[in-house]
Design goal:
The protein is an alpha/beta fold. It has one domain: NADH:ubiquinone oxidoreductase-like, 20kDa subunit (Rossmann fold, 3-Layer(aba) Sandwich), CATH 3.40.50.700. It contains 5 helices and 7 strands. Helix 1 links the parallel strand 1 and strand 2. The radius of gyration is 17 Å and the shape is elongated. It binds iron/sulfur cluster. Iron/sulfur cluster (SF4) binds next to helix 1 and helix 3.
Amino acid sequence: MAEEQVKKRVGIFSLTCDEGCSIYLTEIFNQKLLGWLERADLVYFLSVKNKTDFSGLDIALVEGVVTSQKDKEELEKIRSNARVLIAMGTCAMSALPSGQRNTFTPEQKEEIREHTETYGFLPRALALKEVVKVDDEIPGCPISEEIFIKTFERYLT
Ligand code: SF4
């Protein structure tokens, strides 16, 4: 009897962003998911499923920017539960556009201080790699379909 292939546990996460990459990802999944389901188990993707357990992941795909303490703690938790963590989209790689505030003058920072304190924002908006080890990155805003497929399939094998 053929040995059953162990499926990779995959989670998809959103930090601060417009979730454009994960929305685009649902389009990619529409085309490719049936083939991938033989090799992947989508255990966490709040856009399409209502599961909250993401322990023991093989692959974590993370979009968005680390703007708040909550984002930072969530990213650290994802990292500690994932063998491979992939930054998905240009904002996760660069912290922009949220990171524009990192270059504000002291006067501009004072203007937004009340807002940043109210929402628990960090002093600087951070790219994922400034907080945790990132194993790979998929550029684009939203992500490049071609690079996503190539990168994702590499980690599925
Ligand atoms: S990279 Fe662009 S599309 Fe993707 S989540 Fe960030 S802002 Fe949205």
